[in-house]
Amino acid sequence: MSTDLSQYEVVYRRPEALTEVYTHYCPGCTHGLIHRLVAEAIDELGIRERTIAVAPVGCAVFAYNYFNVDGCEAPHGRAPAMATGLKRTQPDKIVFTYQGDGDLAAIGTNEIIHAALRGENLTVIFVNNANYGMTGGQMAPTTLAGMVTTSSPYGRDPHLAGYPMRVAELISVLPGAAYVVRRSVHDVANVNKTKAAIKTAFMVQMEGLGLSLVEVLSSCPTNWHMTPVEALRWIEDAMVPVFPLGDYKVAEAVVPLTKRTRAAR
């Protein structure tokens, strides 16, 4: 075999917006994949030098170590509030939050709702794996009915604990939200669609159109007690019927941006 690498075509390299470190995520967790999609979007838009990431408490608490951009940690659920302060004081920066469902949909529900009501010019990456991943797999607002967790050992009972919260649908009705979609990373086609949505969300902020939110259905093999392959299938078979994929709000001014990202795929 030839050792002359010049004859080979490079088909993939680490995005500049990712640092060269190992992540702490469990095997099969798709947080790392979503990080890569965010980083690729940042690189392709040429915004790395002016991007700020806000990571709150949760599985993504160390995300600022993995993104090669300026970053900071927010108190649990308070990422939209911190991001608001950063964006308002430095409007030329691109500010995004990276939040899980226990963070955004429970402890920080008030924060994301009012950020959307105010129309803060932020990008929110919302990772939904239907449980509190970091603290042991407890029931979250997004936990499916009947789903067994460490705090719902007999399955979530909607009559006692309510029904799963559909964040994309909730945020989409708020007037300050410009772009709200739900995507997934359970197969290659959906990974590509997720990247396009993330790129569009950043472009929405660059154009000053209001809050953009991309909800991403993600796997949690450790707390779901599944293999990585089984977890990906469970997203498709169990989560997608409850959390349908699609565009929940695309403001008229955003439509040209979505066409550009789709054409670039």
Produce the secondary structure layout.
Blueprint: H1 31-45, E1 51-55, H2 63-66, E2 70-73, H3 79-89, E3 94-100, H4 101-107, H5 109-118, E4 123-128, H6 158-161, H7 167-172, E5 177-184, H8 188-206, E6 211-217, H9 221-224, H10 228-242, E7 246-250, H11 255-264
Parallel strand pairs: 1-2, 1-3, 3-4, 4-6, 5-6
Antiparallel strand pairs: 5-7
Helix pairs in contact: 1-8, 4-5, 8-11
Instruction: Note the run of SSEs as H and E.
Output: HEHEHEHHEHHEHEHHEH
Helix tally? 11
Number of strands: 7
Rounded to an integer in angstroms, the radius of gyration calculated over CA atoms is 18 Å
Could you tell me the CATH topology label.
Answer: Rossmann fold
Which whole number gives the mean pLDDT? 95
In CATH, the architecture is 3-Layer(aba) Sandwich
Shape: globular
Taking the sheet with the most strands, its summary is:
7 strands, mixed
Poorly predicted runs are none
Q: Report strand %.
A: 15-25%
- Enumerate the strands of the largest sheet in spatial order, edge to edge or round the barrel: 2-1-3-4-6-5-7
| Helicity, as a percent range | 25-40%
* Amino-to-carboxy terminus distance: 34 Å
Can you tell me the number of structural domains?
1
Secondary structure category: alpha/beta
CATH superfamily: Thiamin diphosphate (ThDP)-binding fold, Pyr/PP domains
The CATH class is identified as Alpha Beta
